[in-house]
Design goal:
This protein is an alpha/beta fold and about 400 residues long. The protein has 3 domains: about 170 residues, Rossmann fold (3-Layer(aba) Sandwich); about 60 residues, Helicase, Ruva Protein, domain 3 (Orthogonal Bundle), CATH 1.10.8; about 120 residues, Up-down Bundle (Zinc Finger, Delta Prime, domain 3). The chain has 19 helices and 7 strands. Strands 2-3-4-1-5 form a 5-stranded parallel sheet, with helices on one face. Strands 6-7 form a two-stranded parallel ribbon. Helix 12 packs antiparallel against helix 13, helix 12 crosses helix 14 and helix 14 runs antiparallel to helix 15.
């Protein structure tokens, strides 16, 4: 049997299995149980968040012969046919490659015919924003006068490119980025089912690198598993994602705080030599600075918002750094990140960033000094106002 990617094997088959989109799935289930099926839906959101999966589940549920609480049974004749891509009444169209007027006119000509087996004929149009202007106009005509037996489900990652006239004729559902915690929980569930061991930190790295997309997380996990089928290690996860390990990042920032530019530059060069991505490296540094800010203001909040345990040496080195300096460092890094987008010299920019960060650690005014200066200025102004009143 041919190998199937994890995101295909673990594609959700009912609404309960959809990760991180509870509001969307509950609303769709309610519309099914109350028999309030709209003629057109628009699923908008980032890639890998479950738009196409929910569209297929919804198509199953409204055509299921034994639906319970808005969920498809996955056992009846219609559900099995849809799962096996045999039901001709469910039509999937990729708008990226079928974006012309002729393709949409073909749909308009066929919608008038009733479904052959199912209750509803469902058209799932993926990446609908790729349709041409003429195609959108042709689709608009169909959405204005839809037959009762037809349901359109439009999916897009770029809602701003969909004409307002189309959006206003659909029920819009916004799919949000999936939280790292929800992604991690699903990855752990999959690995447990497959009886594969894992490092907790490896799961955290994969979940963070997925950037809110379950499909991306499963693709990364697939690559990590290719290094060794019996264990998901932190080392392999870092290798695949291009992330830097927490120990190296902590060592880098400790050198910055101690104004040891040479050691910080050596750490950066070593990370580059190990294959770390410049963007992932910058994101890791920003996240670590964020964690230090949380630790300075509310250590309990840090445990709730971060997966990592701060290095003891880093915490010690950071005691001499005020929050204002950390804010300044984050601003500097953001500037470098913007410049990196238009440059092929990522290593050079990070070396410059390192020098600037060390200077920020040395020259930024501590908060207490700034506050004292402000207070002195206020008192001076108050004195001047009092003198003017006496005159």
């Amino acid at each position: 049997m041919a190998y199937q990617a994890l995101y295909r094997v673990w594609r959700p088959q009912n609404f309960q299995q959809v990760v991180g989109q509870k509001i969307v799935t509950q609303t769709l289930k309610n519309s099914i149980t109350t028999d309030q099926i709209s003629h057109a839906y628009l699923f908008a959101g980032p890639r890998g968040t479950g738009k196409t999966s929910c569209a297929k589940i919804f198509a199953k549920a409204i055509n299921c012969l034994d639906s319970q609480d808005g969920e498809p049974c996955n056992h009846c004749e219609n559900c099995v046919a849809i799962n096996e891509n045999r039901l001709t009444d469910i039509i999937e169209i990729d708008a990226a490659s079928n974006n012309g007027v002729d393709e949409i006119r073909d749909i308009r000509d066929k919608v008038k015919y009733p479904p052959t087996q199912a209750k509803y004929k469902v058209y799932i149009i993926d990446e609908v924003h790729m349709l041409s202007t003429g195609a959108f106009n042709a689709l608009l005509k169909t959405l204005e006068e839809p037959p009762a037996h037809v349901v359109f489900i439009l999916a897009t990652t770029e809602i701003q490119k969909v004409p307002a006239t189309i959006i206003s004729r659909t029920q819009r559902f916004n799919f949000r980025r999936i939280s790292a915690d929800d992604i991690a929980e699903q990855l752990i569930h999959i690995l447990t089912e497959k009886n594969i061991s894992y490092d907790d930190q490896a799961i955290a790295v994969i979940s963070r690198a997925a950037d809110g997309g379950m499909r991306d997380a499963l693709s990364i996990l697939d690559q990590v598993l290719s290094f060794g089928n019996d264990h998901v290690s932190l080392e392999n996860a870092l290798e695949v994602t291009g992330d830097a390990d927490d120990q190296s990042l902590a060592h880098y920032l400790s050198a910055i705080f101690n104004q040891n530019v040479t050691e910080a530059l050596q750490t950066i060069n070593t990370l580059f030599a190990d294959g770390c991505s410049a963007n992932r490296l910058i994101e890791g540094i920003i996240e670590l600075l964020r964690d230090l800010l949380l630790q300075k203001n509310d250590a309990q909040l840090l445990t709730q918002m971060s997966y990592r345990q701060l290095d003891a040496d880093l915490i010690t080195a950071a005691t001499q750094i005020q929050s204002a300096q950390l804010y300044q460092m984050i601003d500097l890094i953001n500037e470098i990140q913007l410049q990196l987008k238009n440059s092929a010299h990522s290593e050079l920019f990070l070396e410059v960033m390192t020098v600037k960060l060390a200077n920020a650690a040395k020259t930024a005014a501590p908060v207490s000094e700034g506050a004292a200066a402000n207070q002195a200025e206020v008192e001076k102004l108050q004195t001047q106002v009092a003198e003017l009143k006496q005159q």
